[in-house]
Amino acid sequence: MNIKNLIYALTALSFTIVIGGAIYEHLAVVPIWSAAPPRSLAMFQGEYGLHPEMFWKPIHPVTLALFVVTLILSWKSARRRNVLISFIGYVILLIVTATYFVPQLMAILRTTYTNTIDANLTERAATWEMLSLIRLAILIGLSLTLFLGLTKTSDLRANGSPH
């Protein structure tokens, strides 16, 4: 296996880990905290509260760095388009995440715990979850684009064209 293939595979793996984390959160975490806020937000509070940022903060920079290296290594190959589409889409989603999803989530999670259920907060949580599932579907589509690049050559074609 040459270095270009190895780096590409590591990028695809890292991107898949991002998606795996998102799927896990949507299956195991989001349904709990969004069920009856602020009462259901207790899972994030206290000394033993859940801290998902311990996963998200390191995985995104690693994935971005791998994308950049893969893009550089794939620039003159048939894979360039797959990497570029996936990378640009991922960066756009990270910007949307930083400007909408994280602030909205933090606003919900920072709500003071009470033993009651706030209908407005529950509605905001449901909207966040629906939009986050759309974001996840886009990520999965981008990952398929990236994986399809693995079927292409990592070197220039005989005619010198990357296409």
Your description of this structure?
The chain is an all-alpha fold and 163 residues long. The chain has helices spanning 3-33, 53-74, 80-109, 119-149. α2 runs antiparallel to α3 (80-109) and α3 (80-109) runs antiparallel to α4 (119-149). The longest helix is centred in the first third of the chain and has 31 residues, at 3-33. The protein is elongated. The two termini are 22 Å apart.
Quick take:
The chain is mainly alpha-helical. It is built from 4 helices and no strands.
Please identify the structural class as seen in this structure.
mainly alpha
Q: Into how many domains do the coordinates divide?
A: 1
Low-confidence stretches: none
Q: How do the helices and strands follow one another from N- to C-terminus?
A: HHHH
Mean pLDDT across the residues is 93
- End-to-end CA span: 22 Å
Helix content: 55-70%
Shape: elongated
Tell me the total number of β-strands.
0
By oligomeric state, this entry counts as: single chain
Report the biggest beta sheet as strand number plus sense, adding barrel if it closes. none
Helical element count?
Answer: 4
State which percent range the strand residues make up.
under 5%
Radius of gyration: 19 Å
